[in-house]
Every structure is written in C-alpha cells, then in structure tokens.
Design goal:
By secondary structure, this protein is an all-alpha fold. It has one domain. Helix content is about 75%, strand content about 0%. The chain has six helices and no strands. The longest helix has about 50 residues.
C-alpha cells in the first residue's frame, strides 16, 4: 500500500549498512562528548575551589589590615585547604574511565600552581624579598598560565579571555594599585576569574550530559 506522505519518495530508505554506520557515528559522538565532559569536569572543580580559598585569604588580609580581624598567618591555612581539596578532587576524578590525557594535563597544571606559589612566597621571604606587588603579580601570572592550559585542554576557548583577565590583573598588581587595595583586588579577581567560571563549567557539563 503506497504511503500517504508526499515526501516519502523524495529520500531513499537507508540500507542496513548505512544504519550501522550512522549508529557507529552516534556512538563515537557520544564518546567524544563524554571525554570532553570529563576534561571539563577536571578543570571546573579546581577552578572553583582555588578561587574560593584564595578569595577568602584575600578578604582576611584586607580586613586584617583595617583592624577588623586578628593578625594571623593566613597562608598555611589557605595551603592546607587548597592542597587538601585538590588531592581529594584528583582522587575522585582519577577513578573516571574517561579521564584521559587532556584532563591529566589540566590537573597537573593546577597542581604545579599549588606547588609553585608557596615555594615562590617562601623563597622570596627567605631571600629577604618582601615586595608584595611582585609576589602578587607572579601569582596572577601562574593563574593565567593554568587557566590557559584549562582552556586548551577542555576546548573551552572562552576561558582564554579569563586568562587574559589574569594577565591584566597581574599588570595592575605590579604597576597600578596601592598596597592597601591589593588584597581586595586579588579576592575579587579570584571570585570572578576562578570561582565563577568553575561553577559555570560544572553546571554546563551537567546540563549537556547525555
């Protein structure tokens, strides 16, 4: 019995081989999306976590110099929280079957930042270098590099604009801001350039999961 659909004769019916080919293509597409999702998930929690830790440390330093909070050395507490959270996230993400080379590169970049920053601070003070603009500028530069690696590894190119934001922040830290406002700028930068993109990436990857 002929079909009542006037468009039914315009396109030929796919053969069995063509159907199998399309099925394979869909499976490959699903696999690519899952791998990219795993890579994004590798970067998103690290961005958000380090943003929160450093933002709180910056706020503490700002209100400490205003006399509203006690004078304590925030860096050790920030390091314990940052390292502890990073190690936990790496352990959780390492169990993913789709956690491939790109995700490992992202995690390695942020681990390198986690190691480099305290070494930078301790080394500067050990050598008698207490130039806070220099130290803050170098911290922003390290965040710029790690964010750029995250952008390229996760194929999330708009993160390159975030990396550019860190470059601008580094320049401001070095040349265009007083010592009083430096902790507040660093705190706001961490929220805007680390925590916000991390949360957005995490929520986006969950919405696009198939």
């Amino acid at each position: 019995m002929p079909s009542n659909d006037p468009l039914s004769g315009l396109l030929p019916m796919p053969t069995e081989d063509e159907l199998l080919f399309m099925s394979d293509e869909l499976e490959e597409l699903r696999s690519i999306i899952q791998r990219n999702e795993a890579v994004v998930m590798a970067g998103a929690p690290l961005l958000a976590w380090w943003g929160i830790c450093n933002s709180l440390a910056g706020l503490w330093n700002f209100f400490e110099q205003m006399g509203y909070l006690p004078s304590v050395l925030v860096a050790p507490f920030n390091a314990v929280a940052g390292y502890g959270g990073t190690v936990l996230l790496v352990m959780l993400m390492g169990t993913s079957k789709t956690f491939k080379l790109e995700g490992q590169a992202i995690v390695t970049a942020w681990l390198a930042v986690a190691v480099a920053i305290p070494l930078l601070v301790i080394g500067c003070y050990a050598r008698g270098v207490t130039d806070l603009p220099l130290i803050s500028g170098l911290q922003c530069t390290l965040f710029m590099i790690a964010t750029a690696v995250t952008a390229m590894g996760s194929r999330t190119r708009w993160l390159l604009w975030i990396a550019a934001g860190w470059a601008i922040c580094a320049g401001v830290m070095l040349f265009a801001i007083t010592e009083f406002w430096r902790p507040m700028l660093f705190s706001v930068a961490c929220l805007v350039l680390l925590t916000a993109p991390g949360i957005y990436l995490f929520l986006s990857s969950r919405r696009t999961r198939i």
